[in-house]
């Protein structure tokens, strides 16, 4: 029986290599995939639908806070995500959990913590450090609102947050400008926003240190 397929998404090559080394020691039969940005993460997942687990750094190029986590959970809900981050504030850990992560590993954790967390999640469990932070109803509400968006609408929303015009969004995503207009209208309706600016504020709330 083949081993699990694990995707390590982090923009630092040395850290990716270190994580992969740890995982190979613990799971020698596993197949390893790599991604260095939010866009390559999407490409690799699109090419490897059999991915069993994603180890995700929050601070990758192209990601806005928890946006990459929400995008993966929305487009590949069957693939568990373990966040691995240098920002291990209890509030950040709790938000990762509420936005759909199956686990959280601090980059300062010992190597065996990575292997232990991955093993727990692959077995269908979760792996979070002890937390003293209360669940945030605002985060739960934000996650529920964003979950209404299709993957393409979520991409358009991130472009809106960057201040791009419809024409620029169309060029960046390879869409017709009229299609972008349709998506923007749907996004504002689903998120109960009256303007593009208000929708962009919601994306700002995805930053790890922000509270919606």
Automatic annotation (TrEMBL):
GO terms for biological process: phosphorelay signal transduction system; regulation of DNA-templated transcription. Keywords: DNA-binding, Phosphoprotein. The keyword GTP-binding does not apply. The modification 4-aspartylphosphate is found at residue 57. Residues 5-122 form the Response regulatory domain. SUPFAM superfamilies: C-terminal effector domain of the bipartite response regulators (SSF46894), CheY-like (SSF52172). One of its GO terms (molecular function) is DNA binding. Residues 142-207 form the HTH luxR-type domain. It comes from the Bacteria. CDD domains: LuxR_C_like, REC_NarL-like. The keyword Ion transport does not apply. This is LuxR family transcriptional regulator. It comes from Stenotrophomonas panacihumi.
